[in-house]
């Protein structure tokens, strides 16, 4: 829509009337509308949920199901490295390259 189209339809008058009504309202612009409070409450609830969900990770302990995806202690030896590549059921999911990287990290 171009400014000329808007002028023909009276858009500027509508905007001007709406602005006047807003300025005439007592306390307009000074307080958050109810939807603004709901947004803040939702944001704080999300922040609190994130805070509590990741609390175990602050001390280095696994979060949620991380223990299932970690390389088992039995596979941390050299024989375990061979098991990672030759036995698909040795880990929860068969990702030999990923578990080899985990094996290297645990042996550093």
Describe this structure in words.
With 108 residues, the chain is an all-alpha fold. The chain folds into three domains: 1-31; 32-60; 65-108. Helix content is 60%, strand content 0%. The chain has six helices and no strands. It has helices at residues 3-9, 11-24, 34-53, 66-69, 78-86, 96-106. The mean pLDDT is 76.
What is this structure's SSE topology?
Blueprint (H helix, E strand, L loop, with lengths): L2 H7 L1 H14 L9 H20 L12 H4 L8 H9 L9 H11 L2
Order of helices and strands: HHHHHH
What are the segments in which pLDDT stays under 50 over at least 5 consecutive residues? none
As a percent range, the share of strand residues is under 5%
What structural category characterises the helix and strand content? mainly alpha
Oligomer category: single chain
Helicity level: 55-70%
Keyphrases for this structure?
108 residues; 3 domains; 6 helices
Can I get a quick summary?
The chain has 108 residues and is mainly α.
């Amino acid at each position: 829509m171009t400014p000329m189209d808007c002028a023909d339809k009276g858009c500027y008058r509508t905007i001007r009337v709406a602005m006047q009504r807003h300025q005439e309202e007592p306390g307009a612009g000074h307080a958050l509308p109810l939807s603004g409070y709901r947004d803040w409450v939702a944001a704080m609830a999300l922040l609190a949920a994130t805070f509590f969900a990741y609390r175990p990770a602050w001390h280095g302990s696994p979060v949620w199901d991380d223990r299932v995806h970690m390389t088992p202690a039995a596979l941390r030896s050299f024989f375990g490295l061979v098991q990672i590549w030759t036995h698909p059921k040795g880990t929860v999911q068969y990702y030999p390259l990923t578990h080899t990287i985990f094996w290297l990290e645990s042996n550093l």
